Amino acid sequence: MIIGIIGSSLAGLVAGKKLAQAGHDVTIIEKSRNLGGKLASFNHRSTFFDYGISSIISSDSSFEAFMNELKEQEIISEWSRDFAFYDGTQFHDVNPNRPQNLYHSAKNGLNSIAQYLSRWVDVMPNVKAGGLTHIGADRSKKRSWMINLTDTNVFECDAVVLAAPAPEAYGVLQISQDETPSRRIIRHIDEINYDPCFSLMTTYDDASPEWKGVECDEATLAWIGNESSKVGNEGEGTSLVIRSSALFGRQHQGANQDEVIQTLLRKAADVAGSWIAHPKWTNLHYWKYFEARNPIEDYFLEMEMNEAPLALVGDYLMGSSVQDAYLSGHNFAEYWVNKFSKVNV
Hints:
By secondary structure, the protein is α/β, with parallel strands linked by helices. The protein is about 25% helix and about 30% strand. It contains eight helices and 20 strands. The strands form five sheets. A seven-stranded mixed β-sheet has the order 7-6-15-16-17-14-18. Strands 9-2-1-13-20-19 form a six-stranded mixed β-sheet, with helices on one face. Strands 10-11-12 form a three-stranded antiparallel β-sheet. A hairpin with a 6-residue loop joins strand 19 and strand 20. Helix 1 runs parallel beside helix 8.
């Protein structure tokens, strides 16, 4: 089959790789230049900032196997078992509420995982999908679907996978040009709510602190990550990623960026040291759909129409972690590989 995947989230990339390895022709349509969604990294003067997901951790055998694959490719490596903790009033060297699991980072930023997965598929970057047209079983054209692109072009395919955040997947389905069973699955995703946040990247001349990250339980901050402590980023000075709480992200959406930056710097300085208030360089990013608050209890959703397959995958299905996103794409792809064992050319 020719399969069009809308969105290059981890779930979409994992599904694309597995479907391509099974012999399907897979193309990912991505509205931005970068792949990987929250596997987002920014390279500033040879330092990689993971300004989306800060690290990855496994508690599932399938995801553990994938992590071992990434280790063999020398993409990820061990980072830490311990993070500091700020409880709203006091700084603790170790978070007493978290098990000492092994967290991993990537020497060239976690986005290198997305780059690795994209090797198996074709990618159309900077192209947005505006809607779908269902051609139908009694069609004269060869393919079941047309993905309508906002540049007025179309991409014809036999099957569609929506791997974008739930509101964006909803938008694509909502403006589909034909009444199809795809409309029926809209009700499963239209109530998904997301927590937003800000991620602030900063650099300093100051020496790197001993802590590798600080988990924060308070109104403004959720996380302070010491990017300088990750493999590949060792050197002079310090680089941090300061991530806001969801509450702060909701309350300050659309606020003046300089004011947001100063507020995050002041609070991080209160938590982990006055030097944090005086960076050399800053870069602020806003995540509108950072974490699903009420995930659907299924790894994927499917429109049951064999002549025009359509499915949804993502980190709003079964959970909101990196592992959940991987399992969504992995379990879905295994299902379709078995279901469509004969590749349609």
